[in-house]
């Protein structure tokens, strides 16, 4: 059973939420300051009220909580007010229950501690994609639970993401269910690549034309074909990736053969990610190769870069937060058919995976 509730925004400060993406040892997740020794990151997040606010582009943000698979899961949706369902009670909402809209979705999973959920870097409508962010249902706000590369709740959290997007969001917003893409940040990228993509990508992308795979009944949520052929789903994996931690089904493999994936890192990435990201790149290349794609096709579908001379998630070579924002601003350029140049720079990150699997790093954060 799925239920939806929202609270009025009271303007509480983000400073109550742990912002550091790393622990004292430089790994993913972990350490807390003095204030957070008294409260978990989830407790601190609960102190920040939910409700309705304005996005940076003037559209409307709904911050709400739904119960999914027995868990309270907080999420944000940013879109023009008239695209929200009237049941939400948002001023200007104009869509009836069951309405289908023209906007796609860019669903973001934050890094450890939840910083990017509250920053909501993908909030502005970009290239006709509305922004969505989901908060990890974990005391530490770690996607997949656990710590470091060991994401012990990865299976359950991947299921929650799938079910929230498929079953809850249509109760909130009128959108095109055939245009749903995903962005990961650090730990969120670990959840996407390690658990979500191999288990659920078939729910968001139909098989690539010509790829042999067992057919399954197509739901209303399966990506449709059109006169110009099938569109690829898009996945942007920022500062983190895991090889699949669960079996990749034939259905998921066929869908991944029609999924645009970009792996983005930096020169001074965290040491453990310097090992896991190349391993993930090799694994996902192998998945689509086994599904029948030729090298040239893979090169067009999967790309990689670690050229920015920064630390973990510092894609602008300055800072975690501004670096993540840069990639959000560059989503269309990087994975939606653009020129691959990061916003406001001359840095082109579209290097084909074939031949560039083994990234060379200059140091470690």
From TrEMBL:
Assigned keywords, A-Z: Signal
Q: Which residues form the signal peptide?
A: 1-19
- Specify the superkingdom: Eukaryota
What's this protein's name? Answer: Carboxylic ester hydrolase
């Amino acid at each position: 059973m799925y239920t939806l509730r929202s609270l009025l925004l009271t303007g509480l400060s983000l400073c109550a939420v742990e912002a550091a993406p790393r622990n004292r040892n430089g790994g993913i997740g972990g350490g807390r300051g003095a204030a957070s020794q008294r409260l978990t990151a989830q407790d601190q997040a609960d102190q920040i009220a939910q409700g309705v606010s304005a996005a940076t582009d003037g559209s409307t943000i709904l911050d709400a909580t739904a119960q999914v698979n027995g868990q309270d899961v907080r999420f944000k949706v940013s879109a023009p007010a008239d695209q929200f369902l009237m049941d939400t009670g948002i001023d200007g909402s104009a869509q009836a229950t069951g309405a289908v809209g023209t906007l796609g979705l860019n669903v973001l999973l934050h890094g450890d501690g939840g910083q990017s959920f509250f920053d909501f870097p993908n909030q502005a409508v970009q290239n006709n994609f509305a922004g969505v962010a989901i908060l990890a249902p974990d005391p530490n706000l770690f996607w997949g639970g656990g710590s470091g590369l060991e994401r012990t709740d990865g299976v359950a959290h991947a299921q929650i993401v799938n079910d929230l997007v498929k079953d809850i969001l249509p109760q909130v917003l009128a959108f095109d269910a055939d245009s749903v893409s995903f962005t990961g940040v650090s730990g969120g990228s670990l959840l996407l690549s390690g658990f979500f993509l191999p288990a659920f990508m078939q729910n968001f992308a139909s098989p690539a034309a010509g790829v042999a795979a067992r057919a399954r009944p197509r739901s209303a949520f399966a990506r449709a074909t059109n006169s110009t052929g099938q569109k690829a789903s898009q996945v942007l994996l920022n500062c983190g990736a895991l090889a699949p931690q669960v079996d990749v089904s034939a259905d998921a493999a066929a869908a991944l053969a029609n999924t645009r994936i970009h792996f983005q890192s930096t020169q001074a990435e965290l040491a453990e990610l310097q090992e896991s990201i190349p391993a993930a790149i090799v694994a996902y290349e192998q998945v689509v190769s086994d599904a029948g794609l030729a090298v040239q096709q893979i090169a067009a579908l999967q790309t990689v870069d670690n050229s920015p001379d920064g630390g973990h998630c510092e894609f602008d070579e300055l800072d975690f937060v501004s670096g993540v924002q840069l990639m959000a601003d560059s989503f269309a350029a990087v994975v939606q058919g653009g020129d691959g140049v990061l916003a406001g720079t001359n840095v082109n990150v579209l290097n084909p995976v074939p031949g560039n699997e083994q990234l060379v790093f200059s140091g470690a954060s």
